[in-house]
UniProtKB/TrEMBL annotation:
NCBIfam families: ABC_choline_bnd. The lineage of its organism: Bacteria, Pseudomonadati, Pseudomonadota, Gammaproteobacteria, Pseudomonadales. The keyword Nucleotide-binding does not apply. This is Glycine/betaine ABC transporter substrate-binding protein. GO terms for molecular function: choline binding; transmembrane transporter activity. It comes from the Bacteria. Pfam families: OpuAC (PF04069). It comes from Pseudomonas taeanensis MS-3. Keywords: Signal.
Length: 314
């Protein structure tokens, strides 16, 4: 049997690009549910992505939860996306979900070049606290405390493990678990009084500009080499690319740099809204739109780049 395609029909078919076909998603894909674990860099990543998603006609929403709850919510498909998986610090938390196949870690990282390990004010470093193994000598001055972030975070888990195993002689130390914001307040207070403090530090983060701080050596077996060199990955539901291919394409396209993150985070830490900060940054750096929106259409199948530029008055 021979099938004839008349010229008019062929012309119509050729009008549909691969991107147009990609955007044929069910209405359930219009709402993109982001996990936000309360870290400023996570707010920055979400802000950039959500501004673009809105310009494409989606309805993005971020919900603040702890890391374990974020992963459990993605496993249950109550959330779709998490843009801030720090590896190796959070590997132990992510591994059970990854092993069961109930979450998907995208193969290509969204940001290389980060780091995550213990730090001290530089004046304390200059007094001799330069390595994890030096901490016990300062136990009295430190009140036997190490300042972490929220309970269940990857960094806190590593520190609790170090304490439980009495590594570096830290068995009698107490980890102060609160939040990133509370830790920063404690560090700022200590530095204002030139008091000793040991805390979790990482980059990118404006704390590296806010505080005169130095990272400790010696934590390679736990935080990884090169001062806890970290790679940031994106996590989605396992079937997100099949259910919502256009939204998933946007998510997989989102790549960030440490300089970009630091610029965004500095303003967010001054209590500016993440979406406002992200919008301003994109307007000043529109060249990134070509990368982020490659192969992406609006929710209803129109040109994605043109729609976002119109949305942002570019």
């Amino acid at each position: 049997m021979t099938i004839k395609i008349v010229p008019a029909l062929m012309s119509t078919l050729l009008c549909f690009s691969a991107g147009d076909l990609l955007a044929q998603e069910p209405d359930s894909c219009k709402a993109i549910k982001f996990a936000d674990i309360g870290w400023v860099d996570n707010a920055a990543n979400n802000g950039l992505t959500m501004v673009l998603a809105e310009g494409l006609g989606y309805k993005p929403k971020a919900t603040i939860v702890s890391l374990p709850i974020a992963l459990a919510s993605i496993q249950k498909k109550q959330m779709d996306v998490f843009l801030d998986y720090w590896s190796p610090a959070s590997d132990d938390t992510v591994k059970p979900f990854r092993d069961k196949g109930t979450i998907k870690v995208l193969e290509e990282p969204n940001m290389p070049g980060a780091k995550y390990t213990l730090a001290v004010p530089t004046y304390l470093f200059e007094k001799g606290l330069k390595d994890f193994s030096d901490i016990p000598r300062f136990k009295e001055e430190l009140n036997g405390r190490i300042y972490g972030i929220e309970a269940g975070s990857g960094g806190n888990k590593l520190l609790n493990q170090i304490i439980a195993e009495n590594k570096f002689g830290l068995g009698e130390f107490k980890l102060v678990e609160s939040s990133e914001a509370a830790m920063r307040v404690a560090v700022a207070r200590a530095i204002s009084k030139k008091e000793p403090i040991v805390f979790l530090g990482w980059a990118p983060h404006p704390m590296n500009l806010q505080f005169d701080m130095t990272y400790l050596t010696g934590g390679d077996d736990y935080f990884g080499p090169d001062y806890g060199a970290a790679t940031i990955y994106t996590i989605t539901t396992p079937d997100y690319a099949e259910r919502c291919p256009n939204a998933a394409k946007l998510i997989s396209n989102m790549k960030f740099t440490t300089d970009m993150e630091a610029a965004l985070m500095a303003r967010i830490m001054e209590h500016e809204k993440a979406d406002v900060v992200a919008t301003d940054w994109i307007k000043k750096n529109p060249q990134w739109l070509e990368t982020w929106l490659a192969g992406v259409t609006t929710f209803d199948g129109k040109n994605g780049l043109e729609a976002v530029k119109k949305h942002l008055d570019l």
